[in-house]
Protein 1
Amino acid sequence: MDPLALAVLAIVGSVAIGAAVAKLFGPAEAEPTSRAASDAAPRPATWTSGLAKTRGGLAGRLLAAWRESKESEDWLHQVEETLLSSDVGMRATQALVETWRKEIGRAGSEADARAIMRESVCDLLSTEASGAATGDGPHVILVVGVNGVGKTTTIGKLAARFQRDGRKVVLVAADTFRAAAIDQLTRWAERLGVDIVKHQDGADPSAVVFDGVKAAVARSADVVIIDTAGRLHVKANLMEEVKKISRTAGREIDGAPHEVLLVIDATTGQNALNQARVFNEALGIHGVALTKLDGTARGGVALAIRTELGLPIRYVGLGEGPEDLAEFDAAAFAEALFAESDA
Ligand SMILES: Nc1nc2c(ncn2[C@@H]2O[C@H](COP(=O)(O)OP(=O)(O)O)[C@@H](O)[C@H]2O)c(=O)[nH]1
Ligand SMILES: [Mg+2]
């Protein structure tokens, strides 16, 4: 065998061994890692780490435009282009351009410009905290959204959060479309030690919800979180099914669902807005969980969701771990977006 072939074999061999070792010691695939399991458990994501890509793609470009062309009219054109191409949406773009046209002249330094930009983004995202409707009995959260956006993962993270607050959680596996979906939610329930109500795959989702809310009442649960199938919003009959789920919950628990949470994948940009419109018309969305911010430079879509649709963002996903869900905070978002370092 010639030396080149030997070298190639050696490289392939060591890569394979490396992969096997990584598999042995790496975290379980797509599963929440237990903090107690090892000292090397990944640190929970922070706002600053979760927004790193959007910071580079959006804030970085805005500040570069300011540095290079602040003296000319051209800078506002660059701002407009940057905002629009970052999925910020027309309304937020116009609002920001108007504000900065008036205010950026005050900026004597880059730090000033940063602060002005940060403040206006924070203002646009700020929402009056709407007190969620409450009644007697468990608080019911219905989680909807198209396939793969992160519903089940967000439910797991939410359950972990409620549990940390000492609240008794029941999960309801109403995504009966595939057995894998039920298994995925079951794994979260087992990890966290929370109750789950499920049927076989293919079962009527509303029947699962019926059993789920009944069980939650019987067990005096504080929170019920309903997982649903990632149905395509263009299929009207599927939309009808989510409505049926909603009505079923409402018949068993006064005022339920108290919260319809729409999960949106930030990496899908503008497309996410269209989904949100359809879900909102069918169900009346109370709030949005914006996932996968850590994986995209399109985090500016948060501004579009807020300004184009008027929907409050309730949570953001900053990573895949059980703790990588933050309650939305406009100031923290704006702060991380315009943070100076990548700390
Ligand atoms: N990086 C990252 N990945 C996420 C986040 N949320 C969900 N995911 C991943 O997105 C994929 C689909 O999530 P899943 O919960 O199954 O979506 P569903 O079909 O809507 O229930 C999984 O691989 C998740 O680990 C997030 O905030 N950040
Ligand atoms: Mg799912």
Protein 2
Amino acid sequence: MSAIPALNTLADKLDRSGATEIVHPKHPRSICIINYKGGVGKTTTTALLGIYLAKLSKKKVLLFDIDAQCSLSLAMGFDPEKVSNTELTVYNLVEPKAWTKLKQKKLENYTQALKSIHLPKNLEIIPGSFNTDELDYLIAKTLLKDEKRYLTELFLYIKQLLLSFEEEYEYVLVDCPPNKMFLTQAMLRACSFYLPVTIPDQISIYGMPRLIRWVCQIDPPSDRPKLLGYVLNALNRAGGGMVGSQQRAHFDLIKGVMSTLQADERAVLGDKALVGEIPRLDVIARFLGEDKSAITEFNVKKSGQPTVDACMTAIRNVVIDRITRYNGN
Ligand SMILES: Nc1ncnc2c1ncn2[C@@H]1O[C@H](COP(=O)(O)OP(=O)(O)O)[C@@H](O)[C@H]1O
Ligand SMILES: [Mg+2]
């Protein structure tokens, strides 16, 4: 583990040397769902947002599972034990020996059609692999040979990989692990946008302003993904609003986030960086686990909390509106 933090600074060193100054296009509707903290709802948000974007889109929506825990693959109905052992996971797509061979990759082999009758037909996923952790070590080992060359190669490869899905896939969503390793960094840089997710409690919100500051410093600025705002997950409500401790944590988060925004982000987000709220609901936990048929209950109101349909439709619409405004169309 000790070699990794030192290597993380390479990206900055490289950028300062100007090696990545050439502007390369990105997939214009690619979103990195991120937070360096685990258990806050990144996978939940990726799965639900993917479903609700797919419901509206005439094209396809692609999900990337880059977390070694493979939770998104599980949430989409794959058995991670099985998919992890195939040659068609995110591991095989981004391992160093693939970096110069994008044209030879048959990408349609990786976007295995989901078999679930409950999920939208136009929703696809690049499944995760339990070996993704080792992949970061493999990348680190490759960088030791020639850091400048291979870091540039990695960033470029991931960007071109996401871009190659542009024609068929209207949206690409990347579900990140709770770390800042090379693959996470590369995906974050390769995406046009990022969407942090947090639970509104003091410990969960703690690192988010730092994450946003870190992204703001990405150089060259053309590589900087733009903030779509943040999602609050797992809300507990009392009398229609957030419980007191959650309200206080959210107040601190607003202060932290608003003070870090760039001018282009301020122009789109105004004074409201919040994208929307997802309540803590049993139906969500059941859906993410074994029970995909729970999706049929997404519009059923069982408590004082809003339904999944209500909150995810609102979140999806804000995401689409902000992407449209950032992209100037
Ligand atoms: N809104 C929610 N309602 C109910 N359960 C949730 C909700 N969000 C997350 N969970 C539960 O919490 C766990 C962690 O969420 P997850 O999305 O996997 O977090 P992360 O991807 O940030 O690690 C999941 O297993 C899920 O069952
Ligand atoms: Mg996750």
